[in-house]
Amino acid sequence: MTRASLDKQPHEVASMFDDVAERYDLTNDVLSLGQDRRWRKEVARAVDARPAQKVLDLAAGTGTSSMPFARTGAYVVPCDFSLGMLRVGKRDRAWLPYTAGDATRLPFRDDVFDAVTISFGLRNVQDTDSALREMHRVTRPGGRIVICEFSHPTWAPFRTVYTEYLMRALPPVARSVSSSPDAYVYLAESIRAWPDQPALADRLKDAGWSRVAWRNLTGGVVALHRGFKES
């Protein structure tokens, strides 16, 4: 699969991530010009994990995104549907409880986690609304969700430059650093097709989340959405 599709097939998306697993973290660092590190720090602050809390990190890939939560003393479960990503993660961080799972059918009981988070993965899920409902189901009353996802730059001139970067510059850069550059053509198109900040907030509310708000990072290139499950 090399083109973004509104009816993303889970096995195709999982296979795509299997192919890029070995160099995924390096490629993201290069393509984001190092900004991904700052974005992940902001996610950690928003999740605000505490010792002994249970955190579900969806689309965790190799577990890089899970490490800030683990360092706080929280019990973090990295979950992903790409077995290739999980294998690389397990090799490098064997002590984390990696779990294979589809965001639309999570393999967890109701009301388990204090916080659920997903970074740069929600737009790759086949059914976004089902995933948001599943995340709500497994979060305990009073718990929270934090979503970090590519979004829509708020300044029109920059939005034009950013779109040109995604569609023209990103694929050749990906070819130089990634083992599967076609995957990054798909990723660029999926970013361009993703809903804007207010639209995603509305979908969170429709899935049952309350007190939904968002904050733009890097001028809206990325947005952090947060919500709570009512007690």
Automatic annotation (TrEMBL):
GO terms for molecular function: demethylmenaquinone methyltransferase activity. Pfam families: Ubie_methyltran (PF01209). The keyword S-adenosyl-L-methionine applies. S-adenosyl-L-methionine binds at residues 62, 80, 102-103, 119. It catalyses: a 2-demethylmenaquinol + S-adenosyl-L-methionine = a menaquinol + S-adenosyl-L-homocysteine + H(+). GO terms for biological process: methylation. Keywords: Menaquinone biosynthesis, Methyltransferase, S-adenosyl-L-methionine, Transferase. Pathway: Quinol/quinone metabolism; menaquinone biosynthesis; menaquinol from 1,4-dihydroxy-2-naphthoate: step 2/2. Its EC number is 2.1.1.163. Methyltransferase required for the conversion of demethylmenaquinol (DMKH2) to menaquinol (MKH2). Belongs to the class I-like SAM-binding methyltransferase superfamily. MenG/UbiE family. This is Demethylmenaquinone methyltransferase.
